[in-house]
Structure formats: structure tokens, C-alpha cells
Write a structure and sequence with these properties.
The structure is a homodimer of 768-residue chains. Chain A is of the alpha+beta class and 768 residues long. Chain A contains 19 helices and 33 strands. The longest helix of chain A is centred in the middle third of the chain and has 35 residues. Chains A, B: InterPro entries: 6-hairpin_glycosidase_sf, 6hp_glycosidase-like_sf, Gal_mutarotase_sf_dom, GH65_N, Glyco_hydro_65_C, Glyco_hydro_65_M, Glyco_hydro_65_N, Malt_Pase/Glycosyl_Hdrlase.
Chain lengths: 768, 768
């Protein structure tokens, strides 16, 4: 653990005391979002200390020109950047003509920051003594509305404590912003118009190249002691900003507040010529409702999310805070309303990685959204890939594949590849497997087969074709091999026969063939349509099968384990425990070649296969592989601890499972990887959810039934979670020695608990 | 072959007819240099068509900030760029107020360009009709003086053919130049002063960051019908240029000429405050001698070089032109006078690759310089690496090595690594082997052991330590392995147990141990000094030996060949002959992953080992390996055909040897690799020399004696070459059926011809 200043609390993230060294980390941790937009927890007033300003709009990106040292054929022309959007939260504050700036105050006392996850708001409180000796008490509350997802609201309030004070609020909007992360210092935004009328202001701006049209807007009201006052603003504007000055002579002990409403309207949701009109309508509604009503609505909206998504942990505040933080951030990032959007690894909390969609969505996020939302959300996530199938085929063509073979991009915003390290882009092809697996997983969980004949099968065919073409025949081994890949463990590059990749390749082909057969027999119309489109012959399918049946898997007879890749046993097999602490994290201490030739594993690789395909192996096999690989695993990927927590729980190693659970759930709160200032690890947060539900809860789907093998860490008294399974909601409450099940719905649910069939009737507590 | 416009000629490179599409290629091919500076064959007058302007000063580079997509620990901060230096050749020409510009003329007739290799000059001739209908005959001759290597001279002459004409020559110098190749569009030069006096002009400029101080200078004289005329120049200057205008009303049929002298003085050779003084002294001497005398001196200087270095081929003009072009360009690039300089892969003909020193120097260039110059030149090249030993140790430390292990950089200007692809910089470690091999080769050829106790042994110890630490023990194989490397064949990355690397690693350790022993026994003082410095114990040496003795070499029992690396036989072994032509060159047609998983070999890899260590293997073994690997070799490295030509000759496959010879010798003249416009392949030109001397001539050193197995391609009547062997010069003239040997020197030379001992007495033609 690298940082330890977040105060444990069941429902809130709390920071007390002002430390400029924590500002960037807290800007990440206290980020807020509503699925449509999000922002780092930057201060409203100017701050001259180290800060990382970021406000992001879902789906708005910039295709930054790729930067590489040495160009390789097939690299994408651009790297999609998450774009810092125009600022609407800014409020310059002047107190007796001195700008309020926490970095420059004489004294800052009683500083407290709270991210209230239950109600969905962020607040700040402090007493500051300015250089001019004016002492003020400041309270700020801010939220991004879930109900009106183009709107955010701020209540900023100041009370002079030691004298009367002339206070000016100068709320502004500003499109003259920059990105932290840019390859060529390009300008990303083109401001089209700046306008204002009465107390409303609007900036229309479009992104360069991608031409996303946006309108950033604001309107404010000021209050003295909670009474609305009409102050004619002093308006100032230039080519990319507008501000309104509201000045008032405030008496000592009196409070002077501003309610600022702001946000974005975007052309994904409106005609690009109607963005100002749409913005006016949002502002008019917001002002009419007022800050307090909007805040009440916010609490209600979040309570609905928590009603379904909450996980309680009794007896371990840090663990409780961790899981709620993870669930909260996931819901802030993606709510599943729009199939055009996806789940970026940093959500709305930073710019790193760029792009929005990695295999993380399919491998880690879908189970969470499937179980805590309506199943249409998971289906939206699947359709996102279906909609990108043509581009995945084009992407494969660039790399020399043909005949409809599809290679989904490693990183994308719009279906095109936008990453450019050859060892990742060209070689980390296992991502294709996760995309097929998600289709299988969706059907397994929801029982909804209709997606496959309607859309999924075309994706499965494109993926099967890719694997068929990508495998080559080794005369030496008399088997099909897959050469030159990077597996999930990115601390190996260009290896041959990565077991995970070969295994999922074989599975993809077999799964595609199985579904072609099912669709042929049961969905004749879809079958004809798909076959006409894909021009797939029986002969080609036979070729697929030859490859799948002849696939090679590296195996050690001596160790009785599958080998992560050819030659793994040639390494110096020194475990992480025997590696000096000073050498870690190896990705910060070692040169790349040294990492590559070491045995150290960044995240589950062979074990990822055992996670996906658990029922293909015995528990003894899982144990043998876990014991072989985990000791070499450095968990320097945020996606690593969750899988290991689930498998440790399955193996009944509760201490280990608990340690991994803490690491995954508090990864950002405690900054395990020394990088929280860059943003949060959003996608791995779904892994945290899995480590409770699938790990401790032991939830699986077996033959269409929910199955549980509940376990509980020694440190906890009880924990509970809910899953939405095929339109019924089951609450599971695991205590020491027994588990309660409670069902919302209208018909019995047959589940399996520790191998025994159990029937749960609606609204009837069942204890096992 | 991609281009076919160079006219075959024994001694000259000739182009006839003006084609703007050939301008960039010709700018490369007709490049001139004198070891201290060099330049592309840019026109003196302005040219508005596509052109690549380049003038380069030996040892003057810029550490351009590295550009990579994704930073890896251990990457160098900078990439050394060969710098385009201030222009001194420029002469703006105005004819009746119209600028002469070949791209804009109404008509260009009788255009002819000649690079006279025998005499070392470049000329141009053409008749141009301008837009204003003035028709002029233009003759230009230019050379860079070998005798005065800071000086170049131009004779530019115009004769109006259809009317009188007012002609202005405006010679200039200009430091406001840019590089073709820059990562961040940085400015590379800082102009310090611009001055002129009478007809002389000077620009002092220094490179940014590296602070190389230079003075660019010029002085001109004008002539009418060869009679010097005194014209007061019209001078113009700004912050980074000076020009002098010389205008004359020239009668129809009269010739108006300018002799321009220019060049660079640099702080490698002068005090940085004395550069203008030094430049004046060069100019005064040049003007005093005059263009014609300087040109005569140039012919004499080149005749001395050719006296020793020439290779004649009778009966095959293209082959003759090819080898002379190669020898000429090598001598233009590096003359061996300065141990601070080295041989850049593009010499002074382009910017690509940056840096000056690759393993090319040791693996390809040293034999040429050793045999055609005094042996002190080769020793200078060895000392270059000795002088960089400390930096090679630092470089190894950055990658996690210790205790004096040295890893020489892949690319360098000053001993620091300046390349930044992990798969090259961190993994292409075989370069260390070539550096040790060059020491062995120097001793083998020259018989001069003194270099080893004086300097070489320290290098050998640093290199042996590296290999000892870089190899790891595989329990699985019960052998030492070298994991994660890139061999000479750069179409494989991060492979395990590259045979060439493992073999040369073992050899390096054994060779170091052998020499430690020799120095201990025969050079006690040096031994003590070196051991004190290196702190090398017997125990450490024993550890080296354990690694060398236990080294693993991948081998196929079935094919009876060493495998290029582990797993090579898993590839789809489709030969190049069976690969569609449309797919080649694969480095332009295929994505990197596809290249990597293919069996295709960029240049000799296993065979490079058979070349270096030919006497470790039988001819049958060589043949088996040649037959196995050559069919998969695409020769997309300039360094590939020469080695294969030598080995094909050794195997008596003369047709193949001849084809490879043409490919290596005319690589740039015929633009085999579609890239001559970027510059010439200088280092591989030494390989061309080897393919005649070692290939057809079969020259080897065996037990301290020169040995020959002369062969001759069917297409040739005879060929001859000379070698400087241990201070004696042997001329070898191979005819069909017999070979003549002639010796300059004062004592008998015992050689071996086709396995038989032969004694050659001085100045006595011996025919075998």
C-alpha cells in the first residue's frame, strides 16, 4: 500500500486535513460521473498548486496522431485520446479582492472532503485564512445528476468569520482547456461560438477531426442566508470563455452562496444545430427545480441503484468501503443506457490508456452488469461488438487475413484499432477469445439464446475464421500451433503457443461450430441469412475443426501443468517471494528485456483460462496450476488480484482470498500500484465484485441454475449481495455457518447450494 | 532491380537525360565525400522539384529527443541524428533576371551527370531553355578535396547560346537549414555569427545540446572565357546567411564561370575561437592554388587510394562499375585518419538510421580497411570501442548487469546507446560478439598481438562478463540458455537460444579466457594492470567457463542442422521461391507479427556464424546449413547478399555466388531495395569487397598465412585485387584456369593456394 489517508467509512470516502501532496490522488479518488459525463474532483475555485484538471464527456474523443519511434506496417494512424472537455465547474472566488486559492492561503483548517456514495455527491468544507487575513468558512457540494444526465449542480457557500467581506463569485465556462496527454501538442477543440443572455452562458465547440459538436453551458443564482438575491452580473467574455461576476458585501457571520448549474449537450443526443436550445431547456428545468430538489432526486436515483447493486460486509469497514467504492465508480462510469458507449479502463477519472474499450469489458465487466442491471445492459455491450464487426474484419485484413476473419481491436473508440505497440496490437490476439466468451457467458447467465441467431453468430464466425487462419501446422509437432503472440500476461511478448490463447482459440472454433449447428436446426431463417452473408461452406467448417482438433497445448509431464507458453521451464524459476523487495514493482525497476526473460507474470494467464473454463478441469488441476503459477505472479496489473481471489476462495484458501480481495477492492483507495494520481482502475472494479460474488459466494451457473458454495473470510461477520437472474432478484446473505436466500419475484427459483438442490420461493427467507 | 538508368562504365557513374523522378535517387548515388565531410549530389542552383538536401560533417550530430509510443525502462533519452549542416554549395543563378531552376525550364537537353570515381569529382552538363527563352549551356564540376579535407570546390560555367545575357551568380552560405528527419521539429543549429569581408564569408554556428562549433565559409572568383574578372560583389546578409552577387553581361557564345570554394572548419580540429581564422587560411590557400591545381591534386590523391584499393574485373562492365562504386564510397566515407570517427551505415549520403556506429563496422568493414589501408586504420577502429568501454559498462548497468559487464550499444555516436526499439536495443545483444570477433580478426590478419594486452583484453573481459551474466541455467535442459534475444536476423524478436548468439557468446568467453592466459604468461605488467583494474578472480573465470562449457545449442537431429532458435521448426516452412512475388519485399507488404511468425530470414543468421567460424565446421556442414537456410532468406538487409555470395563461392556454386555478388555490388545503383533515395548502404559495401576477395578469391588466413582458393565467375575473363598483408602488398590476378601473384615488398611471402604452399618473391610474377 502506497497511500493511507482515506478514512474508513461504510458509505463515504473521506479525507481530512489539507495536504497539497494528496491533491492529484484525491482528484482521482473523489471523481464523480453519471454515465454520460464525469470529472475529476478538481476544485471549483482556482488552485495554483499541482493539479490534473479533467472533465470528460462519454463518447467524445480525439484521434491523436500516433507517435512511435519506428513505424510498422499495419499500425493505426491514430491513437484515440479521451478528451478533457470544456470546463463548466469553474467559479473564481474573490474575497476582499483576493482570489481564494487553497495553495496560497495563510491557513487552511478543518479541511474535509467527502464523496457520499449512498447519495451520489461530493462535498468540501474548510476554514481558510487568506493573505489579507479574512477568515472564511467554505462549504461546497457538487453532483452530476443521474436523472438529467446533461446536468451538474454546485452549491458553493462562504461565511466570513472575522469581518464583513466583499465577496465576488465569478462562475465561468471555458473551452480553452488542454489535455495532460497529447502526442504532438495539437489543439483538440475548435470553439464555434460564445454567447450569453441574462444569467445563462453557452459555448459551442467541436472536437477537431472527429467533429463532435458540444455545447457547454451554465446558469447561476446567488443567495444570502438562503434567500435568493437578484444581482445583475458583471459579464465578461472572450473567444473561448464567459464569466458572470456576482459581488455582494457580506456581513460577518452571514452566508453568501451560489448555485451553479452547468453541463454539456452533445450531438450524440441532439441535432448539432439545436445544442443551445437543448442546453437552455436543461438550465430552465434545473433553475425551476432548484439545487435542493435536484439533490433530493439524486439521492433517490442512487438509492435505486444501490437497492440492486449494494454489497454489504459486516465487521470490516475497510472491506465494506472498498466494495462500495468499486460499485459506485462502475455505476458512475457506465449505466448501460447507450449501446454506442462502453467502459473505459479509467472511466471519467483520467486520460491514460486512451480509447474506451478493451477486452476488460468482456472479461471482467459483463458479469457485473449482467447481475446488477437488467439483462438488456449486457446485451447492449455485446451489440457494441456486433456493430464493430465490419471494422474488425478490416482490421484483420490489414494484418493479412482474409475471407471475413475478424480481429477485434485491442483498444478502440469506434471499432478501429487505436493502439500501436506491435507486441500488443498485433500479438495480443486473445482479446478475440474474450469477445466470443462473453456471448457464451451472456447466454449461460441470462438463458437468452435469441442474441446468437440475431447477431452473435456472425461475430462467432468472424472470430472462428481468424483463429483458423492464425494457427499454422507444425510438421515438427504434427499439431496446429499459434506462433508469435502475447498472452494476457503482458510480461511476455512474441511467444509461441501461449496455452491460454491456444485453448480459447480451440474453444472459439468449437463454440462457433456448435452454434452454427443449433441455429441451422432451430432458426432456419436466421441461418439462411447468416450463411448467405458469411458465405461459409461445410468444407471451411471442416477445416476449422481440423485445426481445433489438432491444436497443440504445451504441457510439462514432470510438473503436470500446462505451460504458459513454449519454453517457460527454461526460465530461472525464482519465486516472487525470493525476489528482493527493492526490485518491485518490476515494471518500474527493470528494463523490458529483463522482465521478458524473467518468469514473472503480470496477471493471470494460464489461470485466466482456468477461470473462464473452470468446469473443464478438476479442482486438483486448478490447485496444481494455482500453486505453480501464483508464486511467479507479481500482480502488477489491476486485473490480476480479483481472479486469484476467486480461485483462492474456490481452493478454500481464505486468508489468501481475503488478501487478494483487499488488494483488488482498495487498489486505488490505498494506491497499491503507485499511480492513482493518473486516474482510477475502473474495469478491474468489476473484478472486485466478482471476487465477492463468484469468489466468496462461489456463484456459478450450472445447467441453467444458479449455484453457490458460500464461504466467508474470518474477518467478516456476514456479507450480502443481490443478483438479477433471469428477471428474478435473489438476495444472498452469507453468515458464519449459514446462508440466507431471499427472492423477489413471482415464481420459485431452483438453485444449488454446496451441491444440493434448493428451492427458493418468493418473499420467503430460506436459510441453508 | 527497381531502377535501371545508371549507364554502365568502368570508372564513372553516368546518368543521361533529365528526369525529375530520378533526382532524389541520383542525389544519393552521386554523393561525394572526403572522410571529413560529405554531401548529397544536390544542385548548386535552386531546384524547386522534389529534392532531399543534405550536407554532413563527420562527427557532428544532434541528440534528438527520443520518440516512442510507450516508454520502457532503460531506453536512452535521445536518438543521435546525423545533422544536415549549413549549406556552402549553393549558387543562385539568374539569367536575364530569371532564376535558373531545372524544374521550371522550358526545355532541358543533353543533361548528363558523371561521378568520376577515378579522379574523385562530380560533374553536370546540360543545355537549358528558360521561360524567357534564353538558351544556355551549363557545365558544373565539384569535388571535396582529399588533401585539404575542410575544403570543397565548384566550377560553375554558363554559355548563352542564343543571345547575349545578363547573368548573376549569387553564391551563398546558409545555416537556416532543416533536417529531413526530426522527431519533434526541434531546431538543431544555433547561428552565432554571420560575417563577410571582401569576397570571403563566414557563418559560425554550433549544434544545440552537443555544442559542436563549426564555421561554414566560402569565397568565389568569376571568369569570362577563363580570364579572371574583378567584379565588386553585391553583398546581402541576414541572421543566418550571406550571399555575394556577381553580375556580368555575357555575350552569346562567351562563357561566364564562377569558382566557388567552401567548406567547414570544426572544433574537433581547431580551437573553437579560431574557426574563422582557420577558415580564412583554408580559403587563402585554395584561392592561391586555384580550382584547376586543386583538381589535379585531387586526381593524384585518388590515384593513390586506387593504387591500393582497386579491384579490376575484365569482361563485365556492370560488375566492374559496381565494385568500384563500393570501394569509392567506402573511401569517401572513412579514411581511417581519426579514431574518434567511425563508419555510419549511410555515410554522408542520407540521414536514416542516425548514429554512426553499428556492429557493421566490426562485422563487415574492418576486413576491408585492414586489407586496403595501413593496419593502423583497423586498430583505430578497435580503439574506438576501447574508448567507449566505460559507457558500455554503464549501458549494461542500466539493464541490470553488474561487476563490469559491458554491453556495447546497438547504435552510437559517443559510446552511449541511441536506439530505442526494445527488441533491438535491449535484445540484439549479439553485437557484443562482433566487437570481440574484430579483435580476434585483427590479430589473425595483422599478427599484431600488442593491441590485446594494451587495450583489447579489457574489452574482452567486459564482454565475457556480460555473456556470463546474460546466460541463465535451465533446469529443464540442464544447460545454459540465452533467453529473449534478437539475432542478426531482425525478422525474429525475443526468441530463445538464437544459435548464432549462443555460439558467439561461448566463443567470446573462451577467447577471453585464452587471452587472459596468454597475457598472464607473456605480458606480466599488462596482466597486473588489467587484473587490478578489472578485479577479476580465478573463481569468476571458472564461472565463465562453466557457462561456456554448458551452453545449449538448438539442433535438429532430423535435419542435421543447428536451429536458428528454439522452435524454428514449428514454422510453416514455405521457401521464398514458393512465396508470391507480390508479397515482397515482406518488410513493405506484411505487418510485423506476420513477418515474425514466418520462416523468412532478413540476413544471414546461423550462416553468419558459419561465416565467422568457418573453420569450426566442415564444408559438408556449411553446405547443409546453406541449403537449409538460404531458401528462407529474403535478403532484405543490405548485409545479406555478401555473406551468401562468399559461402556460395566456397561451395563452388558460381552462378549463385555471381547473382549475390551483383545484388550486393549494385544494391544502390540498381536500387534493389526500393530505398536509394534515402541514401546509400555504405557499410554493406565492405561486404561487396569481401565477396570478391574472400568469396571468389577464397582468401583466408590460416596459421598466419594468406591462403587462396581462387574461383572465377563464368561471366568474367579475369579479376584482380590487392591486399596489404603485414606490411607487404600482394596483387592477385585471377584468370580462367590460373592465378597470378605479384608482391611488393622486400621479403618472400609464403602463401597457400588451393591447399598447396607457394612462396612469392618480391616483384616476381608467380602463376599458379
Amino acid at each position: 500500500m502506497n497511500l493511507d489517508y482515506i478514512i474508513p467509512n461504510d458509505w463515504s470516502i473521506l479525507e481530512e486535513g489539507f495536504d497539497p501532496k494528496h491533491v492529484k490522488a484525491s482528484e482521482s479518488i473523489f471523481s464523480i460521473g453519471n454515465g454520460a459525463m464525469g470529472q475529476r474532483a478538481n476544485f471549483e475555485e482556482r488552485y495554483s498548486g499541482p493539479t490534473f484538471q479533467g472533465s470528460y464527456i462519454a463518447g467524445v474523443y480525439y484521434p491523436d496522431k500516433t507517435r512511435v519511434g519506428w513505424w510498422k506496417n499495419g499500425y493505426p494512424e491514430y491513437f484515440a485520446k479521451v478528451l478533457n472537455a470544456p470546463n463548466w465547474i469553474g467559479i473564481d472566488v474573490f474575497i476582499n479582492d483576493e482570489a481564494l486559492d487553497l495553495y496560497k492561503c495563510k491557513k487552511v483548517e478543518h479541511f474535509k472532503r467527502e464523496l457520499n456514495m449512498k447519495e451520489g455527491w461530493l462535498s468540501r468544507y474548510f476554514i481558510a485564512t487568506l493573505q489579507n487575513d479574512t477568515k472564511v468558512e467554505v462549504s461546497v457540494k457538487r453532483f452530476l445528476s443521474l436523472d438529467m444526465d446533461e446536468l451538474g449542480a454546485i452549491n458553493y457557500s462562504i461565511k466570513p468569520l472575522n469581518s464583513n467581506a466583499t465577496i465576488t463569485y465569478r462562475p465561468y465556462i471555458d473551452s480553452g482547456i488542454t489535455n495532460e496527454d497529447t502526442n504532438w501538442d495539437d489543439k483538440f477543440w475548435d470553439t464555434l461560438s460564445v454567447s450569453h443572455q441574462d444569467n445563462q452562458a453557452f459555448i459551442q465547440a467541436k472536437t477537431m477531426k472527429t467533429d463532435f459538436y458540444t455545447c457547454t453551458f451554465m446558469q447561476s443564482q446567488v443567495f444570502v442566508n438562503d434567500g435568493l438575491v437578484a444581482i445583475e452580473p458583471d459579464t465578461s467574455s472572450d473567444s473561448n470563455s464567459v464569466s458572470f461576476g456576482y459581488t455582494h458585501n457580506v456581513k460577518e457571520g452571514e452566508s453568501y452562496s451560489i448555485h451553479k448549474f452547468g453541463g454539456y449537450t452533445v450531438d450524440r443526443n441532439h441535432d448539432k444545430y439545436e445544442l443551445v436550445t437543448a442546453a437552455k431547456s436543461v438550465l430552465n428545468k434545473a433553475v425551476k427545480e432548484g439545487f435542493n430538489t435536484l439533490l433530493e432526486n439524486q439521492k433517490t436515483a442512487w438509492s435505486k441503484i444501490w437497492e440492486m447493486a449494494d454489497i454489504t460486509i459486516d465487521g470490516d469497514v475497510k472491506a465494506q468501503q472498498g466494495i462500495r467504492f468499486n460499485i459506485f465508480q462502475l455505476n458512475q462510469t457506465y449505466l448501460g443506457k447507450d449501446a454506442r458507449l462502453n467502459i473505459g479502463p479509467k472511466g471519467f477519472t483520467g486520460e491514460k490508456y486512451g480509447g474506451s474499450t478493451y477486452w476488460d469489458t468482456e472479461a471482467y465487466c459483463i458479469p457485473f452488469y449482467m447481475a446488477t442491471k437488467d439483462q438488456s445492459v449486457a446485451r447492449n455491450l455485446l451489440e457494441y461488438r456486433y456493430n464493430h464487426l465490419e471494422k474488425a474484419i478490416e482490421n484483420a485484413e490489414k494484418l493479412g487475413f482474409s475471407n471475413g476473419a475478424a480481429l477485434y481491436p485491442m483498444v478502440t473508440m469506434n471499432g478501429e484499432e487505436c493502439h500501436n505497440e506491435w507486441e500488443i496490437t498485433f500479438e495480443e490476439i486473445h482479446r478475440n477469445g474474450a469477445i466470443a466468451f462473453a456471448i457464451f457467458n451472456y447466454h449461460r447467465y441470462t438463458g437468452d439464446y435469441s442474441y446468437i441467431p440475431e447477431k452473435g453468430l456472425e461475430v462467432l464466425i468472424g472470430i472462428a475464421r481468424f483463429w483458423h487462419q492464425r494457427a499454422t501446422f507444425s510438421r515438427d509437432k504434427n499439431k496446429y500451433v499459434i506462433l508469435g503472440v502475447t498472452g494476457p500476461n503482458e510480461y511476455e511478448n512474441n511467444v509461441n503457443n501461449n496455452w491460454y490463447t491456444n485453448y480459447i482459440a480451440q474453444w472459439c472454433i468449437n463454440y462457433a461450430l456448435e452454434n452454427i449447428n443449433t441455429v441451422e436446426n432451430q432458426y432456419a431463417t436466421d441461418y439462411t441469412r447468416i450463411m448467405n452473408k458469411a458465405k461459409l461452406s461445410k468444407a471451411e467448417m471442416q477445416e476449422w475443426k481440423t485445426v481445433a482438433d489438432g491444436m497443440y497445448f504445451p504441457y510439462s509431464e514432470e510438473k503436470e501443468v500446462y505451460l504458459q507458453q513454449d519454453g517457460f521451464l527454461d526460465k530461472e524459476l525464482i519465486t516472487v517471494a525470493d525476489l528482493e523487495k527493492s526490485q518491485r514493482p518490476i515494471n518500474q525497476k527493470w528494463s523490458w528485456d529483463r522482465i521478458l526473460r524473467s518468469p514473472y507474470i503480470k496477471q493471470a494467464d494460464t489461470l485466466q483460462g482456468f477461470y473462464f473454463f473452470e468446469d473443464h478441469f478438476t479442482t486438483e488441476e486448478l490447485e496444481r496450476h494455482f500453486d505453480f503459477y501464483e508464486p511467479f505472479t507479481v500482480h502488477e496489473s489491476s486485473l490480476s488480484p480479483c481472479v486469484h481471489s476467486i480461485q483462492a476462495a474456490k481452493l478454500n484458501r481464505m486468508d489468501q482470498a481475503y488478501t487478494f480481495y483487499l488488494r483488488t477492492s482498495r487498489l486505488d483507495l490505498d494506491d497499491y500500484n503507485h499511480e492513482v494520481h493518473e486516474g482510477l482502475h475502473i474495469t478491474s472494479m468489476a473484478g472486485t465484485w466478482m471476487s465477492i460474488v463468484e469468489g466468496f459466494g462461489g456463484m456459478r451457473i450450472k445447467e441453467g441454475k444458479l449455484s453457490f458454495e458460500p464461504r466467508i473470510p474470518e474477518q467478516w461477520n456476514a456479507y450480502s449481495f443481490k443478483v438479477n437472474f433471469r428477471h428474478q432478484i435473489l438476495k444472498v446473505n452469507v453468515c458464519k455457518g449459514h446462508t440466507h436466500f431471499e427472492l423477489e419475484g413471482d415464481q420459485d427459483l431452483h438453485i444449488v447450494v454446496n451441491g444440493e438442490d434448493v428451492t427458493i420461493s418468493p418473499n420467503n427467507l430460506v436459510t441453508v
